[in-house]
Amino acid sequence: MSASPLLLIGCGKMGGAMLSGWLAGSEAAGGVHVVEPHSASMGDLASRKGVTVHASADTVPDGLAPGTVVLAVKPQSMDEALVPLKRFVAPGTCFLSIAAGKTIGYFEKHLGSSAAVVRAMPNTPAAVGRGITAYVANANVNGGQKAQAHRLLEAVGEAMEADSEDWIDAVTALSGGGPAYVFLLIEALAAAGVKAGLPEEFAMRLARATVSGSGELARQSSEPASQLRINVTSPGGTTAEALKVLMDPAAGIQPIFDRAIAAATARSKELAG
Question: Using alpha carbons only, how large is the chain's radius of gyration in Å?
Fold first, then answer.
């Protein structure tokens, strides 16, 4: 039996990264139809094997019968994007959204209560194949559709199923916004290095390489992060002295992150509400 085609709505940075991952693997075996209204992107997309480009969802053939419709448009454009897609609601089609703040209830309202919907929250390292995505499915999604959604998301990194949609706001705060916090850490390390006497460019190069290298070490290691930290920390040494400041229970990094993640989670709930 031949594979069902995929329908990708929006081919910006995240949608484009996912498309590249699918084409590099086997997930695009049934072909990919891409709806991308920006003409500057259409020529390059159309030249890729197995890809059919449409300037509008209205021009996608009614008989396409996609296995998965991937919604990769900006949240503020979603209302308009869904109007011509309701015709694809069928038992064999799953709608996979990567739009922040759009709940399963929102999609059921616009597509109908029978629609199979997976809500996912990726992050920007997907652009280099190192993303992490948490997702949750509604009751209409069958086992095969959920497995397909998982594979599509894994094309740009790791994928994890959440037990509840209630988790997604915290996921948005932690991993969705997480890259910004890591980039801020690089900025802060470099700035502190400058204050300690290093040239600005030299300090920034040290900070970037230290954070990216440590992240790769954490990814490859089977040890927990706490043990990796201990491995770097000699008793009574320079790192231990810095950690006294960073791990202070009242003024250290943990209470700051607690407040930051709580604030982002609350804002995610407001935007979804």
Answer: 22
Domain hosting residue 29, numbered range: 6-163
Instruction: Please classify residue 135 by burial: count the beta carbons closer than 10 Å to its beta carbon, then call 0-12 exposed, 13-18 middle and 19+ buried.
Output: buried
Distance CA 162, CA 121 (A): 10
Q: Are residues 195 and 112 in the same domain?
A: no
Do 94 and 54 lie in a common domain?
Answer: yes
**Total domains present in the chain:** 2
Q: Are 67 and 4 in contact (CB under 8 A)?
A: yes
Over the chain, what is the mean pLDDT? 94
Task: Band the pLDDT of 48: cuts 50, 70, 90.
Answer: confident
Residues 143 and 31 in one domain: yes
**pLDDT score at 263:** 97
- Tens of pLDDT, residues 2-12: 589 999 999 98
- Domain presence at residue 171: no
Cα–Cα–Cα angle for 155, 14, 211, nearest 5°? 80
Strand 116-121 relative to strand 131-137, pairing:
antiparallel
Same domain, 135 and 110: yes
- CATH number, residue 243: 1.10.3730.10
From 114, 139, 163, the end of a domain falls on 163
Amino acid letter, 102? K
Per-residue pLDDT tens digits for 221-264: 999 999 999 999 999 999 999 999 999 999 999 999 999 999 99
Using alpha carbons, list the distances in angstroms from residue 8 to 19, 52, 243, 267. 8, 10, 46, 28
The reported pLDDT for the residue numbered 43 is 61
Q: Minimal CA–CA distance to 23: which of 48, 58, 55, 59? A: 48
Spatial separation of the C-alpha atoms in residues 190 and 239, rounded to whole Å: 16
CA distance 49 to 51: 6
